[in-house]
Amino acid sequence: MRKFKVGDKVRLISGSDEMTVCSVFGLRLVECSWIGKEGTTYKNSFRPEYLELSENTEELSKEEISQEKVSQK
């Protein structure tokens, strides 16, 4: 199971708007916020197995890993 961190961009595996991780409660709950199409801000908690990283976060994670490797040299 993937560990999420505050600031990650995620989506529900079943499909949803992109959400931002606000809080992580161990391995049990991930609190997320998002802005709906009508401009309303929402916040809810989800079990981590229902979430996946959005494409934007995956690209950022790859970039962060590359930068860490360069800085370690």
Offer a concise description of the structure:
This protein has 1 helix and 5 strands; from the N terminus they run βββββα. With 73 residues, the chain is an alpha+beta fold. A 5-stranded antiparallel sheet has the order 4-3-2-1-5.
Measured as a percent range, the helix fraction is 10-25%
Structural class category: alpha+beta
Number of helices: 1
* Structural shape: globular
What's the main sheet like? 5 strands, antiparallel
Rg over alpha carbons? 14 Å
- Low-confidence parts: none
Sheet with the most strands: spatial strand order: 4-3-2-1-5
Overall pLDDT:
84
How far from one another are the termini? 30 Å
- Reading the helices and strands in chain order gives EEEEEH
Strand residues, percent: 35-45%
Protein name: DUF2158 domain-containing protein
Explain what this protein looks like in three dimensions.
The protein contains 1 helix and 5 strands. Helix content is 25%, strand content 37%. The chain has a 5-stranded antiparallel β-sheet. Strand 3 and strand 4 form a beta hairpin. The mean pLDDT is 84. It has one domain. It is of the alpha+beta class. The N and C termini lie far apart (30 Å).
